[in-house]
Amino acid sequence: MRRRKFIALLGGSAIACSLSARAQQVDRVRRIGVLMPLAADDPEGQARLAAFLQRLRELGWTDGRNVRIDTRWTAGKPDEIRNYAVEFAALAPDVILAAATPIVAALQPATRTIPIVFTLVSDPIAAGFVDSLSRPGGNITGFMNFEYGISAKWLELIKEIAPGVTRVAVIQELTSPSGVGQFEAMQSAAPLFGMELVPIGAQDASEIERGITAFTSTPHGGMIVPAGVAGTVYREPIIMLAARHRLPTVYSDRASVTAGGLISYGPDRVDPFRRAAGYVDRILKGEKAADLPVQNPTKYELVVNLRTAKTLGITPPSTLLARADEVIE
Asked: N- or C-end of the chain: fewer Cβ atoms within 10 A?
């Protein structure tokens, strides 16, 4: 009898300890690292972060209550990106939200164990982030920025809104796999529109200005600013240069057009941050990044700025305006 009582007592104690450990695991404050490619005062960056935080709250995660969120802003500076990647690896949060290809590229060698959910990455397979879209296979997954087929659409739009354009400057991130991929996709489609493409390096604002100034020495030019960190970080000088040189320009993001650009076509850049919060929630609840498929964009938008068109002496065709999701007057 004594032996049976002892075993029963021991078993009950073990169960109680197990339940206690589980309760502590559930109740402990989780930690999320957020690494952003923009400056802290960038309105677009703030809108993206706000969408992520709002969706987290809807899923039951509140900063300062059951989760701690550490956010770092890099302003597109390579040294800052590398330093914060090392910092986050040392902090060992439960999961990291990584916005944009250069940030994921810096985090990947820093940690192979901390789950990473990315947004605004164009080609995660070519970049070596995942094994496949359906089965990422490692500690990285997330939400792609677009598919390369969209690159031909930018050429189509510039021809539609400015038929006289025969030469197109392309702001190209030469060291980025997605930058190279976008340019190659446009180059394949360029003959269909009778256009010559001229790549312009985007290492910094000075290189962009030199490239655009040299390009405009010959007439009949236009410009495309593909998806990438450079087009976001150097948004204002690019828009200013396009206006100064009267270049019809197609952008990949709505924010550039609301800031004074001519026309944009691309995925909603805020929506992936809402969706990323869902993956962060699932990882915090025990799922693995390796088992969460990489997803494509679900929302695309066409935006036209009529004020900029008027300044450039352009009258957008009514068929184009009818298709637009937003027209800025």
From this structure: N
Contact 180, 123 (CB under 8 A): no
Are the beta carbons of 153 and 181 closer than 8 angstroms? no
- Give the right CATH number for 150-268+301-328 from 3.50.50.60, 3.40.50.2300, 1.10.10.10, 3.30.530.20: 3.40.50.2300
Reading the block at residue 104, the tokens are 């994921």
Supply the CATH classification number for the domain 29-145+269-297: 3.40.50.2300
What percentage of residues in the chain have a pLDDT greater than 90?
74
Question: How many residues make up the chain in this entry?
Answer: 329
Question: Does the pLDDT value for residue 13 go beyond 70?
Answer: no
Report the distance separating Cα 121 and Cα 129, nearest Å. Answer: 10
Percent of the chain at pLDDT > 70 equals 92
Any residues with CB less than 8 A from the CB of 70 and at least 6 apart, and which? Answer: 31, 32, 33, 34, 88, 91, 93
Q: Is-contact 243 165, C-beta < 8 A?
A: no
Tally DSSP H helices, then E strands, for the chain: 13, 12
Express each pLDDT in 90-128 by its tens digit: 999 999 999 988 899 999 999 999 999 999 898 899 889
Taking the model in full, what pTM does it have?
A: 0.75
Calpha distance 280→66 (Å, rounded): 14
